[in-house]
Amino acid sequence: MDNSEWIEQGYAWTQSDLGVCYANGNGVTQSYTKALKCFREAAEKGDALAQFNLGLCYEEGKGVTQSYKEAVEWWLQAANQGLAEAQVNLGFCYFKGKGVIQSFDEAVKWWQKAAEKGDMKAEYELGCCFMNGEGVTQSYHDAVKWWIKAAEKGHGHAQFNLGISYEDGKGVNQSYTESFKWYIKAAEQGHVQAQYNVGVFYYKGRGVLQSYNEAVRWWQKAAEKGLASAQFNLGLCYETGRGIKKSLTEAMKWYQLAAFQGHVNAQKRILAIRKQG
């Protein structure tokens, strides 16, 4: 008996588990159509995870005609059973008006439910709502409160936003040291703007021991991902020899990459270097 026959006979498997196997091709031939059938059977029996997965199928149009409205209907059933993942997705649907009438208030309601269960995506989104006053009264303090919860779980965008909050002193006491702490956590996860900001902090010695070498290292990471401001700063370092061996060739290379993206100062440096001959 092969895996497909074994699974289809249902030994110790629920329909929801079987649907996941078909969706991912685990032990069976991958099939969204069969996955959908399994999810639907389990969802109609009240399985919250199957309801959530059925909603994903409708959201992404896998095995079925794409429909946000159908996705919302199944996520609502799962959310009402307390499934945080469904509550988060419902929040996004209400926030963006997909499958439902757009409502910041409803988005906040569902994210609040998920956040109270410790879901870091919901915690991050709640923080953004408080920052922007969407569905709640604007509050930097509450924004920071929720971002801290998400950041401590490793949410990169929350870590970056905390860096901004501490740098600007919004919702917290201004602190370059705390700002750098959160920027570098986000930067180490590949957050490109955080990598740029870490470079700035090293260059200026904000909240960390000043180091041109470290500034260059972090700007290099951001520049290679296409961030024009990092490309320009890297060009300056090569032109002046700060933190790296001086090279006009390399400086021009990075200036040109930034200039192609419309960076005005990079365009000016290119013209200045060409005039110098």
What can you see in these coordinates?
With 277 residues, the chain is mainly alpha-helical. Among the domains are: 1-96, Serine Threonine Protein Phosphatase 5, Tetratricopeptide repeat; 190-277, Serine Threonine Protein Phosphatase 5, Tetratricopeptide repeat, CATH 1.25.40.10. Helices cover 71% and strands 0% of the residues. It is built from 16 helices and no strands. Helix 9 packs across helix 10 (156-168), helix 10 packs antiparallel against helix 11 (176-188) and helix 13 (212-224) packs across helix 14. It is elongated. The protein starts with a helix and ends with a helix.
Task: Give the topology, please.
Blueprint: H1 3-8, H2 15-24, H3 32-44, H4 48-60, H5 68-80, H6 84-96, H7 104-115, H8 120-132, H9 140-152, H10 156-168, H11 176-188, H12 192-204, H13 212-224, H14 228-240, H15 248-260, H16 264-276
Architecture of the domain at 1-96, CATH level 2? Alpha Horseshoe
Question: Based on CA inertia axes, which overall geometry fits?
Answer: elongated
Q: In terms of per-residue confidence, which ranges show pLDDT below 50 for 5 or more consecutive residues? A: 5-13
Number of discrete helical segments: 16
Measured between the Cα atoms of the first and last residue, the distance is 77 Å
Count of extended strands:
0
Under CATH, the topology of the domain at 1-96 is which?
Answer: Serine Threonine Protein Phosphatase 5, Tetratricopeptide repeat
The biggest beta sheet reads: none
Helix content: over 70%
Instruction: Indicate the mean pLDDT.
Output: 93
Give the DSSP E fraction (strand runs of 2 or more residues): under 5%
- Which structural class fits the helix and strand makeup? mainly alpha
CATH superfamily grouping of the domain at 1-96: Tetratricopeptide repeat domain
